[in-house]
Design goal:
The chain has 14 helices and 16 strands. By secondary structure, the chain is of the alpha/beta class. The protein folds into two domains: about 180 residues, NAD(P)-binding Rossmann-like Domain (Rossmann fold, 3-Layer(aba) Sandwich); about 160 residues, NAD(P)-binding Rossmann-like Domain (Rossmann fold, 3-Layer(aba) Sandwich), CATH 3.40.50. A six-stranded parallel beta sheet has the order 3-2-1-4-7-8, sandwiched between helices. The chain has a four-stranded parallel beta sheet with strand order 12-11-15-16, with helices on both faces. Strands 5-6 form a two-stranded antiparallel ribbon. α8 links the parallel β9 and β10. The longest helix has about 30 residues. It is globular.
Length: about 400
């Protein structure tokens, strides 16, 4: 089978490489620099497993046009980004719609599987508009930095259909089986309506955001009261109903998925009564403001606050929507003297703040170093502010 993957970010590239174990996979992305790297078998993502699988995947190739990708493909996987657009209070899904419509026009026999995160009801609405039952949705639950592992060992596989006619349901099960055979073992497989599958994605990420917000508020309480936050979290997490996942405090939840998915879920409620989802979003804003105030309380006027890395996770160079950036904005508003260490940025400044990528100079110039996550390198500084209690994501 020939499978086309449109969009080669974390979701698209991981799925492409995993599916290429047993099928011919052709990828396309509008980012030419990304395609150039992949043609040389160089991963555009800072993830060892991606590079390792890329070296082994002889069935995966990239092409320069979407036409070359979708031509002759039996399945077209759409994994293009959908950013939250505040002007419309929803995801901007134009790119997803555009790829689906273009595919239906130029490859009428292909099934289309949307992997992009979209509002609940989007796939059904698109199917009705384009008069096609060959459009399916499958939510993705990848962690940045672990995209290959999570693709090979998914917690569940869900495929959403837009029609309950027999041929559509049969095809949905075929697609689910295709995703399952790419895994390392057996996992839960469910075929449900596309609107339900879309809701699963939004509620799953919003729950994770809620959990992060909860432990961050616990940490704010402990820090304000002079208590040991780790002692409290350790013992709260011993309850098996609570567990120890997603309990490491941070500067606030961020990244590409959680902020936009919580906002989208809130928008999806529309006239449905809710307070919890709104509170999760508000809690994250309050946490960032608290962290910024704590940082400022630890320096004198004019002293340099060194920001160690913009990314939120260890081993990642992706700082898109990072909570660290929001902390920088808040500190700048208060007139703080800032310096950034971020090797992935080659320009002399970022957000009007000087970049110092000579690590030794960065250390010497910084009176206080702030870090969302601590690693061995930064541990040499004697004055660090971080809420990373467990040295994990």
């Amino acid at each position: 089978m020939k499978i086309a993957v449109i969009g080669l970010g974390y979701v698209g590239l991981a799925n492409a490489l995993v599916l290429s174990k047993k099928h011919e996979v052709v990828g396309f992305d509008i980012d030419k620099s990304k395609l150039d790297l992949l043609k040389k078998r160089i991963s555009p993502l800072k993830e060892e497993d991606v590079q390792e699988l890329l070296n082994k995947s002889s069935n995966f190739k990239v092409v320069d046009t979407i036409d070359d990708a979708i031509s002759g493909a039996s399945l077209v996987v759409v994994a293009v980004p959908t950013n939250f657009d505040t002007s419309i209070n929803s995801f901007n899904t134009k790119n997803v719609s555009g790829v689906v419509e273009y595919t239906l026009k130029h490859n009428k026999s292909a099934s289309i599987l949307i992997k992009s995160t979209v509002p609940s009801g989007f796939t059904k609405s698109l199917s009705d508009t384009l008069k096609s039952n060959k459009i399916y949705f499958s939510p993705e639950f990848l962690r940045e930095g672990h995209s290959i592992y999570d693709s090979l060992n998914p917690s569940r596989i869900i495929v959403g259909y837009t029609s309950e006619d027999k041929s559509t349901l049969k095809e949905a099960h075929i697609i689910a089986s295709l995703l399952l055979e790419a895994c390392n073992g057996v996992t839960e497989v469910n075929v449900i309506s596309s609107s339900e599958a879309e809701a699963v994605k939004l509620f799953s990420n919003s729950y994770l955001a809620m959990r992060i917000a909860f432990f961050n508020e616990l940490d704010s309480y402990a820090e304000s009261k002079g208590l040991n936050a780790k002692n409290i979290i350790d013992n709260v997490s011993l309850d098996p109903r609570i567990g120890g996942g997603y309990n490491n405090p941070s500067f606030g939840y961020g990244g590409y998925c959680l902020p936009k998915d919580t906002k989208e879920l809130k928008a999806n409620f529309d006239l449905v009564p809710q307070t919890l989802i709104s509170s999760i979003i508000e809690s994250n804003l309050v946490r960032k403001e608290f962290v910024a105030s704590q940082i400022l309380s630890k320096v004198k006027n004019g002293e340099v606050i060194g920001v160690y890395l913009l990314s939120m996770k260890q081993g990642s160079d992706n700082f898109r929507e990072s909570s660290v950036i929001d902390i920088i904005k808040l500190l700048k508003e208060k007139g703080a003297n800032l310096l950034i260490y971020e090797p992935s940025i080659k320009e002399p400044s970022f957000m009007g703040v000087t970049i110092e990528n000579d690590f030794d100079k960065f250390i010497l110039k910084s009176n206080l170093v702030i870090a969302n996550r601590i690693d061995k390198k930064i541990s040499v500084h004697k004055n660090i502010y971080s809420r990373d209690l467990y040295r994990k994501d």
